[in-house]
Design the sequence.
């Protein structure tokens, strides 16, 4: 039995390093807008028309506004308020001997050593600076996965049951709108080796995508925080992957892979099921239904308040401390 915690580094991250870097996508509001046009117009009938592509950036902004308004409404009630948003930050005062006016210095760099971390064989990690407050709170991707514990298999995690079939993963942020103004709820499914975006009631395929090569064949997936988390198995290599369900325009044949983590050394047998609870904790079960692994995504980022000489951190490094350098 391995010793916990186990720190798992990212094996891949998309070039932009965050969710918003995946480019613009076709929102359902695009079709809602073109449905105001006469039914004989080509741009109303064809989702890939130049007219709909022209409207997509505007529809994206309206979609974001709709999401913000929905989140604000949910926050008014205890039963629907989000419990996974950041409510605690950690800050540290920059030492007085760090000269910010030194033009020859390389800039502020932070290093920490959480328990169990060993990226590249060194018991420390570099923290990544983020200069945008919105990205710091909402858009950055996990830098590592911390495997906290393992235990005997149970039929559910709290009130959430494991998927019995590879379908019916409800997309909470998107829907399909046809040219007759009918709205359809969307679900995600997989059938080796494809992802399928389907109608919730009829299970009709709206789009089919291939997984990114090199990160395994899907064995289960879960929709959480506007991201598709999925387990990929490639022989004896096991991956925990994050993909963007908001497909780019023009239409892509594969989902945009955001990040991937090689969990092969953290699990003792083939992982086959995944659940993410309302607090963002990841639970993975093996194919034999013997073990469950509890994992937490970690965000090794900091944002620097130069005026007041404070560094704000997403994670708690009080046990290991943070080394600050400006050489």
Sequence:
């Amino acid at each position: 039995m391995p010793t916990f915690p186990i720190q798992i580094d990212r094996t891949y991250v998309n070039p932009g390093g965050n969710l918003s870097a995946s480019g613009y996508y076709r929102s359902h509001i695009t079709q809602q807008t073109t449905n105001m046009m006469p039914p004989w117009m080509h741009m109303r009938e064809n989702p890939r028309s130049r007219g709909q592509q022209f409207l997509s950036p505007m529809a994206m902004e309206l979609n974001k506004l709709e999401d913000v308004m929905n989140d604000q409404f949910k926050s008014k009630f205890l039963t629907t308020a989000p419990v996974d948003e950041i409510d605690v930050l950690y800050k540290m005062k920059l030492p007085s001997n760090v000269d910010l006016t030194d033009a020859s210095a390389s800039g502020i760099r932070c290093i920490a050593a959480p328990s169990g971390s060993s990226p590249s064989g060194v018991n420390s990690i570099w923290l990544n600076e983020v200069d945008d407050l919105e990205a710091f709170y909402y858009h950055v991707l996990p830098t590592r996965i911390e495997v906290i514990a393992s235990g005997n298999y149970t039929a559910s995690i709290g009130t959430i049951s494991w998927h019995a079939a590879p379908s019916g993963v409800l997309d909470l942020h998107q829907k399909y709108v046809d040219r007759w103004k009918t709205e359809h709820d969307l679900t995600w499914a997989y059938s080796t080796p494809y992802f399928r975006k389907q109608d919730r009631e009829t299970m009709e395929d709206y789009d089919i995508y291939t997984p990114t090569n090199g990160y395994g064949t899907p064995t289960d997936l879960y929709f959480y925080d506007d991201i598709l988390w999925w387990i990929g198995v490639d022989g004896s290599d096991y991956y925990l992957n994050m993909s963007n369900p908001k497909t780019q325009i023009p239409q892509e044949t594969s989902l945009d892979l955001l990040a991937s983590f090689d969990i092969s050394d953290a699990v003792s047998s083939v992982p086959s099921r995944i659940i993410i609870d309302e607090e963002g904790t990841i639970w993975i079960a093996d194919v034999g239904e013997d073990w469950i692994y509890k994992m937490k995504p970690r965000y090794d980022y900091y944002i620097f308040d130069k005026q007041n000489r404070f560094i704000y951190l997403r994670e708690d490094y009080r046990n290991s401390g943070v080394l600050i350098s400006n050489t």
Observations:
- The chain has two domains: 8-25+150-298, 90-141+301-325.
- Helices lie at 28-34, 42-45, 50-74, 133-139.
- DSSP finds four helices and 21 strands in the chain.
- The mean pLDDT is 85.
